[in-house]
Amino acid sequence: MKASFRLLAGANLLLLCLTAAMGTTVTGTQNFARHFMLGILAALFTCFVHVLVFVYFMVQDKIVKQSILHHGLDASFAAMVDRLKARALKLAMLGVASMVLTTALGAADGAATASGAHFYAALGAIVLNAILFARHDAVIRENGELFTRAFGAT
Asked: What are the pLDDT digits (tens) for 57-84?
Protein backbone atom coordinates (compact mmCIF):
# COMPACT_ATOMS: atom_id res chain seq x y z
CA MET A 1 0.00 0.00 0.00
CA LYS A 2 2.86 2.41 0.74
CA ALA A 3 4.14 2.62 -2.84
CA SER A 4 0.63 2.74 -4.31
CA PHE A 5 -0.42 5.46 -1.91
CA ARG A 6 2.67 7.55 -2.60
CA LEU A 7 2.07 7.28 -6.33
CA LEU A 8 -1.59 8.29 -6.00
CA ALA A 9 -0.80 11.13 -3.58
CA GLY A 10 1.97 12.47 -5.83
CA ALA A 11 -0.24 12.32 -8.90
CA ASN A 12 -3.00 14.03 -6.97
CA LEU A 13 -0.77 16.88 -5.84
CA LEU A 14 0.45 17.37 -9.40
CA LEU A 15 -3.15 17.48 -10.62
CA LEU A 16 -4.07 20.01 -7.94
CA CYS A 17 -1.10 22.20 -8.90
CA LEU A 18 -1.93 21.93 -12.61
CA THR A 19 -5.53 22.89 -11.88
CA ALA A 20 -4.42 25.90 -9.83
CA ALA A 21 -1.97 26.97 -12.55
CA MET A 22 -4.71 26.66 -15.16
CA GLY A 23 -6.96 28.75 -12.91
CA THR A 24 -4.50 31.64 -13.03
CA THR A 25 -4.91 31.78 -16.83
CA VAL A 26 -8.69 32.17 -16.69
CA THR A 27 -9.87 35.56 -17.88
CA GLY A 28 -13.60 35.75 -18.41
CA THR A 29 -14.58 32.68 -20.39
CA GLN A 30 -11.10 32.08 -21.84
CA ASN A 31 -9.65 28.83 -20.39
CA PHE A 32 -12.58 28.60 -17.99
CA ALA A 33 -13.87 25.27 -19.34
CA ARG A 34 -10.46 23.59 -18.99
CA HIS A 35 -10.01 24.88 -15.47
CA PHE A 36 -13.56 23.91 -14.55
CA MET A 37 -13.14 20.32 -15.83
CA LEU A 38 -9.70 19.97 -14.24
CA GLY A 39 -11.14 21.32 -10.99
CA ILE A 40 -13.90 18.74 -10.94
CA LEU A 41 -11.42 15.98 -11.79
CA ALA A 42 -8.95 17.16 -9.14
CA ALA A 43 -11.64 17.38 -6.45
CA LEU A 44 -13.00 13.92 -7.25
CA PHE A 45 -9.53 12.38 -7.44
CA THR A 46 -8.54 13.96 -4.12
CA CYS A 47 -11.66 12.57 -2.48
CA PHE A 48 -10.96 9.18 -4.08
CA VAL A 49 -7.42 9.03 -2.65
CA HIS A 50 -8.59 9.97 0.85
CA VAL A 51 -11.48 7.50 0.77
CA LEU A 52 -9.21 4.77 -0.57
CA VAL A 53 -6.90 5.18 2.42
CA PHE A 54 -9.84 4.96 4.80
CA VAL A 55 -11.17 1.83 3.07
CA TYR A 56 -7.68 0.32 3.39
CA PHE A 57 -7.88 0.84 7.15
CA MET A 58 -11.38 -0.61 7.30
CA VAL A 59 -10.07 -3.78 5.63
CA GLN A 60 -7.07 -3.90 7.96
CA ASP A 61 -9.42 -3.58 10.93
CA LYS A 62 -11.55 -6.45 9.64
CA ILE A 63 -8.45 -8.66 9.13
CA VAL A 64 -7.31 -8.07 12.71
CA LYS A 65 -10.75 -8.67 14.20
CA GLN A 66 -11.20 -11.89 12.22
CA SER A 67 -7.74 -13.04 13.32
CA ILE A 68 -8.62 -12.36 16.95
CA LEU A 69 -11.92 -14.18 16.62
CA HIS A 70 -10.78 -17.21 14.64
CA HIS A 71 -7.02 -17.54 15.08
CA GLY A 72 -6.27 -16.38 18.61
CA LEU A 73 -4.48 -13.11 17.84
CA ASP A 74 -3.95 -10.97 20.95
CA ALA A 75 -7.04 -8.78 21.40
CA SER A 76 -4.95 -5.69 22.19
CA PHE A 77 -4.23 -5.35 18.46
CA ALA A 78 -7.89 -4.46 17.80
CA ALA A 79 -7.66 -1.26 19.85
CA MET A 80 -4.42 -0.26 18.12
CA VAL A 81 -5.91 -0.77 14.64
CA ASP A 82 -9.06 1.12 15.68
CA ARG A 83 -6.93 4.11 16.72
CA LEU A 84 -5.10 4.09 13.40
CA LYS A 85 -8.40 3.82 11.52
CA ALA A 86 -9.81 6.78 13.49
CA ARG A 87 -6.73 8.87 12.65
CA ALA A 88 -7.06 7.97 8.97
CA LEU A 89 -10.74 8.96 9.00
CA LYS A 90 -10.00 12.37 10.53
CA LEU A 91 -7.30 13.05 7.95
CA ALA A 92 -9.53 11.88 5.10
CA MET A 93 -12.45 14.05 6.18
CA LEU A 94 -10.22 17.14 6.36
CA GLY A 95 -9.03 16.47 2.81
CA VAL A 96 -12.55 15.94 1.51
CA ALA A 97 -13.80 19.05 3.31
CA SER A 98 -11.02 21.14 1.75
CA MET A 99 -12.14 20.01 -1.70
CA VAL A 100 -15.81 20.68 -0.99
CA LEU A 101 -15.00 24.19 0.23
CA THR A 102 -12.70 24.94 -2.71
CA THR A 103 -15.12 23.68 -5.35
CA ALA A 104 -18.06 25.48 -3.72
CA LEU A 105 -16.11 28.74 -3.73
CA GLY A 106 -15.10 28.08 -7.34
CA ALA A 107 -18.71 27.59 -8.31
CA ALA A 108 -19.67 30.81 -6.54
CA ASP A 109 -16.66 32.81 -7.78
CA GLY A 110 -17.70 35.64 -10.01
CA ALA A 111 -21.26 35.48 -8.77
CA ALA A 112 -20.95 36.16 -5.07
CA THR A 113 -17.25 35.99 -4.18
CA ALA A 114 -15.28 38.37 -6.34
CA SER A 115 -12.73 38.63 -3.51
CA GLY A 116 -10.54 35.78 -4.75
CA ALA A 117 -11.65 33.45 -1.97
CA HIS A 118 -11.55 30.51 -4.38
CA PHE A 119 -7.91 31.22 -5.28
CA TYR A 120 -6.81 31.31 -1.63
CA ALA A 121 -8.92 28.28 -0.76
CA ALA A 122 -7.28 26.38 -3.63
CA LEU A 123 -3.79 27.29 -2.46
CA GLY A 124 -4.73 26.32 1.09
CA ALA A 125 -6.22 23.04 -0.12
CA ILE A 126 -3.02 22.13 -1.97
CA VAL A 127 -0.87 22.79 1.09
CA LEU A 128 -3.35 21.08 3.42
CA ASN A 129 -3.61 17.99 1.23
CA ALA A 130 0.19 17.75 0.97
CA ILE A 131 0.34 17.77 4.78
CA LEU A 132 -2.53 15.28 5.04
CA PHE A 133 -0.90 12.92 2.54
CA ALA A 134 2.32 13.02 4.60
CA ARG A 135 0.29 12.21 7.73
CA HIS A 136 -1.54 9.41 5.89
CA ASP A 137 1.82 8.00 4.88
CA ALA A 138 2.95 7.99 8.52
CA VAL A 139 -0.26 6.23 9.62
CA ILE A 140 0.14 3.64 6.85
CA ARG A 141 3.73 3.05 7.99
CA GLU A 142 2.57 2.63 11.61
CA ASN A 143 -0.02 0.14 10.42
CA GLY A 144 2.67 -1.84 8.59
CA GLU A 145 4.76 -1.98 11.76
CA LEU A 146 1.71 -3.10 13.73
CA PHE A 147 0.97 -5.86 11.23
CA THR A 148 4.59 -6.98 11.39
CA ARG A 149 4.26 -7.34 15.17
CA ALA A 150 0.89 -9.05 14.87
CA PHE A 151 1.53 -11.44 11.98
CA GLY A 152 5.28 -11.41 11.46
CA ALA A 153 5.01 -9.88 7.94
CA THR A 154 3.35 -6.94 6.21
From this structure: 999 999 999 999 999 999 999 999 999 9
